[in-house]
Structure formats: structure tokens, C-alpha cells
Design a protein that fits this description.
Elements lengths: L5 H4 L3 H51 L6 E7 L5 E2 L6 E9 L13 E9 L10 E9 L3
Antiparallel strand pairs: 1-2, 1-3, 3-4, 4-5
């Protein structure tokens, strides 16, 4: 049996460069997928938090015995918990207007048309916030 010489046992420079190139290409593609996944995860988290905030505000408005027309703003953190404007991630502007009797098909006069506008990030001034989610609802005070 013949022993291999050193030249036959080693990889050539071209083989090493080609292997490193293929590996580098695969790593760049994999890192690109991480950024897409992280962005999708953040959007999903925001959507879930917005749904939670909307449900909280809607529930509080329905439970209030003295709904009145007007506008107010509430701030929430990234987890959807109420906070102040300094630490908030979401700003929620709730606007309620009375619906006139001519706009209704029944005789109830005390229905409010309510718009809940959730914008983020709250640290950005209101007209320039890049993300907005508006939900409209009709509320009947108790």
C-alpha cells in the first residue's frame, strides 16, 4: 500500500476560497432572514397589544355610566398597560360625538359615535407618528 504525499492530502487554495465564498453567501442570506423574522415578530406584538388596548378602552367606555361627547388621550406602554406620556409607546385618542336622531333608524337619542385612534411611537409628535390604527364604534350609554 502506498502512502499519500503531503500535496495529495491538502486542499488547494481554490477549493478553500470557493468553500469560504459559499459559506459567506449562506451566512449573509441567513442574517437577512433574521431581520425579516424580527420585523414580523415586532409587527405581530404591536397588533396584539393594539387589540388589547382597544378592548380595554372599549370595555371601559361601555362600563362608564356617564358617557359624554368629547376627546381625551390615554397613554400605554409596550405591554399595553396604562402609563404616562413620558414612558408611553402607544398614544390613544378617543373621540366621541353624539349621533343625531335623524341619523338613526330607531328612537334612541343617546348613541355616541366613537373613534379610537391608536398611534405609535408616542415619543414622536402626534401629527408625525408613522403608525396609526383607527377603530370606529357606536356606543350606547347605560
Amino acid at each position: 500500500m502506498r502512502l499519500k504525499t503531503t500535496a495529495e492530502q491538502a486542499f488547494s487554495l481554490i477549493e478553500v476560497v470557493l468553500a469560504i465564498g459559499i459559506l459567506s453567501f449562506m451566512l449573509v442570506a441567513l442574517l437577512g432572514l433574521f431581520s425579516v423574522g424580527l420585523g414580523a415578530s415586532q409587527r405581530g406584538t404591536n397588533d396584539t397589544t393594539i387589540a388589547s388596548i382597544w378592548a380595554r378602552i372599549y370595555g371601559e367606555l361601555q362600563a362608564t355610566n356617564s358617557l359624554k361627547a368629547g376627546t381625551f388621550t390615554v397613554y400605554y406602554d409596550r405591554q399595553g398597560l396604562p402609563g404616562n406620556s413620558a414612558t408611553a409607546h402607544f398614544a390613544c385618542r378617543v373621540t366621541s360625538t353624539a349621533v343625531s336622531a335623524t341619523q338613526l333608524t330607531d328612537v334612541t337619542n343617546n348613541i355616541l359615535s366613537t373613534s379610537i385612534e391608536i398611534t405609535w411611537p408616542a415619543a414622536v409628535p402626534a401629527p408625525k407618528r408613522p403608525n396609526t390604527n383607527i377603530i370606529n364604534a357606536m356606543l350606547l350609554p347605560r
